Amino acid sequence: MTPQKSPGWVLSFTLLGLIWGSSFLFIKEGLQILSPFGIAFWRTALGAVVMALVIVIRRHKLPKTLKQWALIWVGGLLMSGVPAALFGYAQQHVSSALASILNASTPIFTVIAIMIAFRDEKPKRYVVVGLLIGLIGVGIVLAVWSGFGVNDPLAIGALVLAVTCYGFGTPFTRKYISTMSIGSESAVFVQVSTSALTMLPLYLLTGPVFVGELSPLPVISMLILGFIGTGFAYVAYYDIIHKVGSAIASSVTYITPLVGVFLGAVLLNETITWNQPVGGLVILLGAAIAQGRLNGLVSKQ
């Protein structure tokens, strides 16, 4: 179906970039009262509430077979549950700015996943060039020449594993879930709801329900992260795809690190070292090339 051109998508696109870019700030605040598994559970559970309302209002149908539910469950763990817990763990030890920058490397790890496990076609030259440039950017962000700088190696590993999950989750979703005869909103509802159910026992069995005293800011942060950052954001994302196509919608990842770094520096007083924004720009350049957005500079093969 040809995307419907509509001027309203610009506002939705901007809001989506601000919402997803600020999610790293909300995770940092939420960690004052929740464990990483708590972050993952509440984020997906609250998002599932929003998606359930959307399904009821729009009268979408849910998957009918066990195989469909199982595939969407796996996709949900890769795209929602596991990365949410990993980002929660990592942000106990690293800045929200660093987390947002490394999150922008998702397109790079998607290319790696396609080359490893979803090799439907031979990678084109510009894809390989973009991949290499993006990996160099990741190295710059992490300051690999000084052993990750002051960052905890386990936290860095958690961030890399999180974007790796996104990397494998994107082509997995495209191949096994997008081809199902169900609406996108229904698939997202199953993804986040099954992720919440999977995270729940891990959340309850690995520590207290709340790790700190409840206070307004962390509670509000988690409500925003769940209802808006997970629920409303998915609705907005698919609305943008419907209006202008997936290519433009996916470019929202170029906004999120800018928002994340800005909020981390201004609201959390995080220190931004020179290599983080420089490496972030290199990552975005590599991602743009790998996605074919700069084909005038890099020849196709």
TrEMBL record:
Keywords: Membrane, Transmembrane, Transmembrane helix. It is a multi-pass membrane protein. This is Unannotated protein. It is found in: Membrane. The chain crosses the membrane at residues 7-27, 33-57, 69-90, 96-118, 125-148, 154-174, 186-205, 217-237, 244-268, 274-294. The keyword Membrane applies. GO terms for cellular component: membrane. Residues 9-142, 155-289 form the EamA domain. InterPro entries: AA-Vitamin_Transporters (IPR050638), EamA_dom (IPR000620), EmrE-like (IPR037185).
